[in-house]
Fold these 4 entries.
Entry 1:
Amino acid sequence: MSAALDLAVCYEDLTGQPTMEPAKGQDVTDVDARLVAQAQTGDFAAFEELVRTYRNDVYGLAYHFLRNREEAWDISQEVFIKTHRSLARFRGDSSFKTWLMRITANQCKDYLKKRRLDAVPFNDAIETHDAPSVVPGPDASVEAKELGAAITKALEALPFKHRTAFVLREFDGLSYEEMAHVMNCNIGTVMSRLHHARRKLQASLKRMGFARG
């Protein structure tokens, strides 16, 4: 059995297993650094622990881009396979998580290019993000769906680099510094792309009759 296949099976077998919490007073980046160092020497158990820790983050980011559970699952496995193969080149210039998110974003971008997809639907994310605790009435529900569809359409019109900035910030909650590492640019560029994404989104919604105020 190949190493790549072993890793894919490993990722599947990890489903449902608890993630080891850092010891009290120990920073997660210290834990990651130790596990990465061990994995770089060939300790596959250490890499398994990294997979357990970040599989949900990888899957979540892939799903935000692809909006398809099976495709996001496949991309997640590919990401960890690629990460395992590239681990020797990781030098710790960023945290392991941001490096992993960068690989994930690039994998999604390549996948979308291959499928000639210029748009990423966000209906499900919009409808479930910050969902109210009280079930809305019929009119409110219809209005929310219409707004969700409008936001989806507006997001689909954004360039990939602007959508990436929006997703990483608004859905994954990354800091500007983390986004800069993932997007391979400086913080100023991150802020500019996010600003353009929000401005274009607001303008699109206004044209569709969803302007605020």
Entry 2:
Amino acid sequence: MAVRPRPAGNLKRPPQPKAIVSLPNFVRLVERYKKAIVGIEVIQDQQVASRGFQLGLPWERPAASRRPSVNIGTGFIFDSRGYILTNEHVVNGASQVLLRQYGKKDAVRARVVSSDYRHDIAILKADIEIPNVVLKVGRSRNVKAGEWVVAVGSPLGLDHTVTVGIVSATERPLEIGDREYPDLLQTDAAINRGNSGGPLINLRGEVIGMNTAVSQSSQGIGFAISADVLQETIRRLLR
């Protein structure tokens, strides 16, 4: 007599593999905008004393000096007319400002068009090749903690160094010395000496901040002036 197989009851299906989430394509973003970012060399003759902030500006020297020195920073072309944005503390007291473009061997002299010391923003102009794609300053009011960001700059003079992180927090007010920063974005993207004035870019290719300061007593705590403050200051300085 044939025995029919009985169906096994309550058989559990094996767990389905979780979907693999891929990281954003940072290469495409960097390739598109790298020519709009410039390294800045500043020759300074006057004495600049060390400020010794716990939250310091990554451009500053550790000690006072009366000898001419070369300091470094970053800037980015934000306008098709060739205007360049950077931190005021990068060019403060400079006797000469030189720009280095991506792929160009020779540095080009630049001049300061206008600046705002208190809010640490300066606009430069130079006789340089304007790339087909410039960096547009976006809006930061809707930026959320956790968003991916890319920082590009010249830490220790290493031009066009790319670091990646997230927005750690928004709307951080700080005072560093006699400068006021009413609306900073906090990020864990690596920021070091020479990054000052470089762009903090979102995945849409918009500048949402300008890298400005870093905690000297800890790691992964950097600050960028928000795009909304940049927009307001640019309009006022170019008026």
Entry 3:
Amino acid sequence: MSFETIDLSWDERGVATLRLARPEKHNALNEAMMHELVEAADIVEATPAVRAVILSAHGKSFCAGGDLNWMQAQAARDRHGKIEGARQLSTMLSRLDCLSKPLIARVQGNAFGGGVGMMAVADIVVAAENARFALTETRLGLIPATIGPYVIRRIGEGAARRTFLNGHRFGTDEALRFGLVSRSAAPDALDAAVEEEVALLLDCAPGAISEAKSLIRTLARGEVEDPVAFSEKALADRWESEEAQSRIRRFLNP
């Protein structure tokens, strides 16, 4: 696994760490990083030993958003090229969003634009108390379009109306209030807080976690005509699974 803009590894527990590795650019997203994030997501998805993924970053910042050189290059492309450039970002976000394994974002420093988008597709976001966030696209004459579906889903329309429009920077307390951040920790306790979340996940059945993620996506997006009947069938399927039956037996007969 050789990458230029990210690092990927996992430990004996099956906890993968996917780390952004452009600290000199505050981990700004360029074409190479987006492609490599998709490739890394495919690897962890296809690796049965991986049970959870931590998305983190080298350096002082989590992610400064889109790389300015990349954005300048997009502006110079023709219409087809611009749409293709936007699709690179949306493909990366979709791939992370659709991981069947739990994704924890470990956030320090600044997270702007696309960095907020990556937070929005994580299942759990643990942020340093002094982290700062912003959707600054309108300051550049742009809009947070490709990250929009995920961020609005995460924080709701009301919070999006302010954060999308005025580009203001906000802290972890505000991010906690509207659900962008799941929990906060002092900077020197950030890793410990992430490990607490990992431990909770590892204590659960991996197949059940995967199907729970699928259930959330299906119900939240209104993809079935009868969500009650769908949920009844989903629970019956789980009851019939060997994973559930073995765990129930262990619980009843410790």
Entry 4:
Amino acid sequence: LFDMDGTLVDSTAGVVGAWELFREKYPTIDVHNILSSAHGIRTVDNLRSHCGIQDTDELEREAQRFEEAIVSTSKEGGRQGIIRLPGVADALVQIAAARHHPNPVWAICTSATRTYALSALRIAGIPVPDVFVAAEDVKKGKPFPDPYLLGAKQCGVKAKNCVVFEDAPSGIRSGNEAGCKTVALLTTHSRTQLEQAKPDFIVKDLS
């Protein structure tokens, strides 16, 4: 069970651009503080916390606008765009070798919306997984266990038999709460930050 942003793809350039764009409408937000704490959390939850949006319909509209901005700003000003992270291509080749199993063998459980996540995967050249759990598929996002519990269920296996690959403390806690083994990647957070979430293993990246 894989997280997406920070685990399979690097969308940092677009996320920075999106928050800078949103600061025009919400001038009191602290972009630096948000970038240090918001990773791995659903866009609607971040907008509720940092922009003070409470209306459900407005949250959905602004979440869509934010995630569209991730894509549209990711290459502005010489930014690198949305890219595939090291080791991902080889990992997917190894996963493909197990596709003969009757149950799905891998899933993405992301805090992103389905529309944005599919765009990010396409841009990064990553195939759509057997099972795909997006932000709108659960009532409670990470750090609650719901995304990974649903991912395991849709794969037809018990969560305790799954391995979660994550880069964010909130996602590691989600995997732990679901009862999965957790592998933390040092792609977006420090070792100290990841250790506080108590993953089973810590590695540099998927390579």
